[in-house]
Amino acid sequence: AKNQGKARYEIFDREMHAVAIKRLHLENDLRRAIEQQQFLVYYQPIINLSNHRLIGFEALVRWQHPTRGFISPIEFIPLAEETGLIIMIDSWVLFTACQQLATWKIKFPHYLPLKMSINLSAQDFRKINLIEEIDHILMETGLEGQELTLEITESMLIENINKTIDLLTEIKLRNLEISIDDFGTGYSSLNYLHRFPVDYLKIDSSFVSQMQEENRNYQVVSTIIDLGHHLGLAIVAEGIETGQQMRWLRELGCKFGQGYLFAQPLSAQEIEIKFLHK
Ligand code: C2E
Ligand code: CA
Ligand code: CA
Ligand code: CA
Fold first, then answer.
1. Which helix (H) or strand (E) holds 190?
2. What pLDDT score does 3 carry?
3. pLDDT at position 260, please?
4. Ligand 1, residues 92, 119, 211: which to mutate, most atoms within 8 A of Cβ?
5. Each residue of 171-229: pLDDT tens digit?
């Protein structure tokens, strides 16, 4: 029995070791990916649920690994955050997505207005030159502030409340819009949400996907929408996959949505073919 215990520890050790090695490889690959620009931006349409009009896109990063193929952001964003590499990745995504929107504005003027929504991580928010970078991008691309939405999470809001309010105020001075992503999944910042100058609440797909199966989740969604409206915010639902979900959300007063029902995240070229060449 003693030996068995020891053997088990050895297996555990070996597994830990394998995990550490894999992580190290991934980290090296991630550094190389930044140097060699192995990232792509995909775009998921955001739809006005009452008239089905395209109002814009969420930019979602994709990593095209030279040997492993596509790697999901769910796999590499956490590591990118731990290592700080996310700052460079997000800068690139922000610039690329803005350039893409500027190109589409010229190429498809009959589709205006279109907006671009970008995901930020906590580190992006901590870096000192975020505002300068936004100014630079707006100048380079000629976009108006109101054409850009920044998606942030609740935990980013409450990390340093006063600093966050200052930062968001600077961002709002440039007319950008702010969206609270994955609302309801993390920290609940209900008691001070009203202090932040935000524009949208995004209902996490985990609530939307369970609306049909569980009445409780329908109630949660309904409560989030009411709460958002009390705070004067517009609501975006993510992960809409069925017509039933869409109809319920619309009835509950949710104005905007995205999900496989409308479209998956697509390459810029696919977006042009399926959504803009009409
Ligand atoms: P998120 O911001 O909550 O993005 C929504 C995720 O839901 C995306 O996953 C999207 O592809 C997926 N999705 C969209 N519609 C549906 C649907 O109908 N059903 C289901 N089941 N899923 C749907 P993705 O692209 O794998 O991204 C995962 C997460 O990685 C994002 O979650 C976001 O937190 C992070 N992420 C992605 N791109 C970036 C980026 O450029 N910067 C940062 N900082 N984070 C990013
Ligand atoms: Ca998002
Ligand atoms: Ca989200
Ligand atoms: Ca989510």
1. none
2. 60
3. 98
4. 119
5. 999 999 999 999 988 766 677 888 899 999 999 999 999 888 878 889 999 999 999 99
This prediction's pTM: 0.93
User: Which of 18-22, 137-141, 252-256 is predicted least confidently?
Assistant: 18-22
> Closest Cα to atom 11, ligand 1: which residue?
265
Q: What are the residues whose beta carbons fall under 8 Å from the beta carbon of 132, sequence distance 6 or more?
A: none
Nearest to 106 by CA among 73, 143, 74: 143
- Cα 6 to middle of ligand 3, angstroms: 44
Residue 181, CA distances (Å) to 117, 144, 174 in order: 11, 22, 20
Instruction: Retrieve residue 222's tokens.
Output: 């309904």
Tokens of 207: 């609530």
Q: Hey, whose CA ends up nearest to atom 35 of ligand 1?
A: 73
Q: What's at 96, amino acid-wise?
A: T
Alpha-carbon distance of 99 to 207, in angstroms, equals 33
